[in-house]
Design a protein that fits this description.
By secondary structure, this protein is mainly alpha-helical. The chain has nine helices and two strands, in the order H-E-E-H-H-H-H-H-H-H-H. It has a two-stranded antiparallel ribbon.
């Protein structure tokens, strides 16, 4: 327990000195995190907006014929807003998973991959058998199958980026976390809104998963600047201590 507290204090001190955030086991430049957040936010909003044209075409067709510019703009902004809201949900789930993954590794240790596989199986089972009875069994199987296929593809790409151990955690994110996020609309049993959320959630989760490595990648130039600032602060502190000793 003392070692954990000591490590946490060291991390907090390093984060404060370097102006970085400790995310998912990595020190990350705060500017990269902010850029990552807004870029993901923009991509998710656009994806949700484009998806609404196909999923909610009836809403658009009602204001396109006859054409009403104000109504078209209103409908477009409405579904863009939905896309942005669903993106924020996916972003929240992603950052929550980074912390859950670290705690899972600490608590379950070598059994953590097995626990994740069991939770993946349970999430797929839950999507099929415990979702609202108002949805057809065929739709439930299609939904679970779509999430599984996209999840396996994203996890495979992540494994190619890094190593074989990344497959299970990536699959856990794409299936379990996505299923938890979708639970917000699954209860309503509205197929259109389920699909409207499904598209941006899967795209945003896959994008975050595959680009996290770039965000956490060490920038040598930035690292040198941090080291220079640290040396300057240490030099200034040493001079202040010397002046104080001289006065005494």
């Amino acid at each position: 327990m003392r070692n954990k507290k000591k490590k946490k204090l060291v991390r907090d001190k390093m984060a404060e000195e370097t102006k970085q955030w400790y995310v998912g086991g990595h020190f990350v430049d705060s500017r990269k995190i902010v850029n990552f957040f807004f870029k993901t936010f923009f991509i998710g909003g656009i994806v949700g907006f484009v998806a609404s044209f196909f999923i909610m075409w009836s809403e658009y067709s009602a204001v396109l014929s006859p054409f009403d510019a104000k109504e078209v703009l209103g409908v477009a902004l409405f579904f863009l807003g939905y896309g942005l809201v669903f993106t924020v949900v996916a972003q929240t789930g992603f950052f929550a998973y980074l912390f859950v993954h670290r705690y899972g590794q600490s608590f379950f240790r070598s059994f953590w991959p097995v626990v994740q596989v069991l939770l993946i199986l349970f999430a797929l089972f839950d999507l099929i058998y415990f979702t609202s009875d108002e949805l057809s069994l065929g739709f439930k199987f299609t939904l679970a199958g779509t999430i599984l296929v996209v999840g396996v593809l994203a996890a495979w790409l992540k494994m190619k980026q890094t190593n074989g151990t990344a497959f299970v955690p990536a699959l856990f994110l794409m299936i379990v976390i996505s299923a938890l996020e979708l639970s917000l609309v699954l209860r309503a049993a509205d197929i259109s809104f389920i699909l409207l959320m499904l598209v941006p959630v899967l795209v945003v989760n896959a994008y975050q998963l595959l680009t996290l490595q770039k965000v956490t990648q060490v920038d040598e130039a930035h690292k040198r600047r941090i080291e220079e600032r640290r040396k300057q602060r240490m030099k200034a502190k040493a001079q202040q201590d010397k002046v104080k000793k001289g006065k005494q």
